[in-house]
Amino acid sequence: MSARPIYIELFPSGDIGIAWDDGVEQFLEARTLRLACPCAGCVDETTGHRTLDPARVPSTVRAERFSRIGHYALHFQWSDGHTTGLYPFTLLRSLAG
Questions:
Q1: Phi, psi values for residue 21, rounded to 5°
Q2: In this predicted model, what pLDDT tens digit does every residue of 14-73 receive, in sequence order?
Q3: Would you give the DSSP letter of residue 44?
Q4: Cα–Cα distance, 30 to 36 (Å, whole number)
Q5: Is 76 exposed, middle or buried (0-12, 13-18, 19+ CB in 10 A)?
Q6: For the CA atoms of the chain, what is the radius of gyration?
Q7: Is the dihedral of CA 34, 93, 87, 69 positive or negative?
Q8: Going by C-beta distance under 8 Å and a sequence separation of 6 or more, which residues neighbour residue 21?
Q9: For 55-74, b where at least 16 C-beta lie within 10 A, e where not — what string?
Q10: Which residues make Cβ contacts (< 8 Å) with residue 58, sequence separation at least 6?
Q11: What pLDDT shows up at residue 45?
Q12: Taking the model in full, what pTM does it have?
């Protein structure tokens, strides 16, 4: 069974903190998270090739709000107007640096 978030914090900077049920605490910078968006507008669904041009994502992008999607993902609304990505918990954990 994969780890699940027990606490998620949206910092004033737009960055995200997650405490997982296995004791891991994670900090995700907003731009890194935005650039990892897995939606069809950012990744070609057929090839899996990332189509999002990083130069089009402002260095000041921030998460404005988030919501849980069931027991498997988070959804973010971004300051650049992007709202379509679902971030599975497995993706979020893989972004730990």
A1: -70, -5
A2: 999 999 999 999 999 999 999 999 999 999 999 999 999 999 999 999 999 999 999 999
A3: -
A4: 10
A5: buried
A6: 13
A7: negative
A8: 3, 4, 5, 6
A9: eebeeebbbeebeeeeeebb
A10: 79, 80
A11: 93
A12: 0.91
